[in-house]
Design goal:
Elements lengths: L6 E10 L2 E11 L4 E5 L6 H8 L7 E6 L8 H4 L3 E4 L11 H10 L7 H7 L15 H13 L5 E5 L7 H16 L3 E5 L3 H7 L2 E6 L2 E6 L1 H4 L6 E7 L7 H9 L4 E6 L2 E6 L3 H14 L3 E8 L2 H9 L6
This protein binds adenosine-5'-triphosphate.
Adenosine-5'-triphosphate binds next to β2 and α1.
């Protein structure tokens, strides 16, 4: 049974009217891992997660969670998964601890509610009605609600959005403890440091398709590939990334970060630096800085999707 993937998505297609939100997506989540699903806004992450959670039926393809069909075998699967929805998923008038206690009663072997509340940092706002909780507190309640039933697989949609740095770190520790206890965590996030720190495996999706999969280290190819961040004093002329790419050759990827900065990924050796300087001279732009660095997940994401991940 432990060989069964926690999640397997095979050729999933989901549309809203004419809009294709998920476009033949296939991916696997191994058990006892933290797996991050990354993608720009509108990439199809939430739709995919909602299909895994049984809230939507696949229009094409199939989805299995712990080997079960999330819609047809919902009764069997539901007690074994936990879901943290974007926006908390609680009623507006109910107090945080009431909600947690109520949900605990619906499970056969719930966690100790007081301990869980303490752990996620809800202890001092347990009597506060849901609508009066801060965004970060609502997130924490959402996480507690997802965990109270001791799930085998937990789906968390942007678990630390709106949390302050201290609570984010505590939440990361909590997710790592869950993995150590054998729980599988599937999360979406817009924070690269979160994915890099937590995830055993990352799936990057864009336009409803899988564009890359691997461990953080595999994705950044061992951190050996280097980058040059070029910042100039005046905005680049139109078409600058293509023109620089043509000047540098096929081994490099050039992405525009903003009006005055470009990121070159590839061998950042003396020859490349000389070519970048020569290109600046030809374009009539003056470099303000040429910074060498190691390629990170944020760079990989930008290359693959053409967009920055950070909110
Ligand atoms: N209920 C809906 N009706 C119509 N279109 C929708 C609906 N939900 C999502 N979409 C569209 O489907 C696409 C995928 O949306 P989805 O929410 O799955 O993306 P996402 O990757 O989770 O985005 P985000 O990072 O912004 O949460 C988007 O273009 C979105 O506008």
């Amino acid at each position: 049974m432990s060989d069964t993937p926690a999640v397997s998505v095979d050729g999933l297609v989901m549309r809203y009217g004419d809009k294709v939100a998920v476009d033949g997506l296939s991916l696997t989540v191994e058990q006892h891992t933290i797996t991050a699903v990354l993608g720009p806004n509108g990439a199809g992450k939430t739709t995919t997660l909602e299909t895994c959670e049984g809230y939507r039926s696949p229009q094409q393809g199939s989805v299995r969670v712990l080997g079960l069909d999330p819609v047809r075998q919902r009764k069997e699967l539901h007690p074994r998964i936990g879901v943290m929805l974007q926006g908390g998923g609680a009623w507006s008038g109910v107090r945080a601890m009431e909600m947690l206690r109520h949900l605990a009663k619906l499970h056969a072997h719930p966690l100790d509610v007081d301990m869980l509340a303490e752990r996620v940092g809800l202890a001092d706002c347990g009597r506060t009605p849901y609508r009066r909780l801060s965004g970060g507190q609502q997130q924490r309640l959402g996480l507690a609600l997802a965990l109270v039933g001791r799930p085998e697989v937990v789906f968390v949609d942007e678990p630390t959005a709106g949390m302050d740095p201290q609570v984010r770190r505590t939440t990361w520790e909590l997710l790592e403890e869950l993995r150590a206890d054998g729980v599988t965590v599937v999360l979406t996030t817009h924070y690269m440091d979160e994915a890099e720190r937590l995830a055993d495996r990352i799936h990057i999706i864009d336009h409803g398709r899988l564009v890359a999969s691997g461990s953080p280290l595999e994705l950044i190819r061992g951190g050996t590939v280097t980058t040059i961040r070029l910042v100039v004093t005046r905005p680049f002329p139109p078409g600058a990334p293509d023109s620089l790419r043509a000047a540098l050759g096929d081994e490099t990827v050039v992405s525009q970060l903003d009006a005055v900065s470009l990121l070159v990924t590839g061998p950042a050796d003396a020859t490349t630096l000389a070519k970048v300087s020569r290109w600046c001279e030809e374009q009539g732009v003056l470099p303000e800085s040429l910074q060498l660095g190691q390629r990170n997940l944020e760079d990989v994401f930008l290359e693959l999707t053409g967009k920055e991940l950070s909110p």
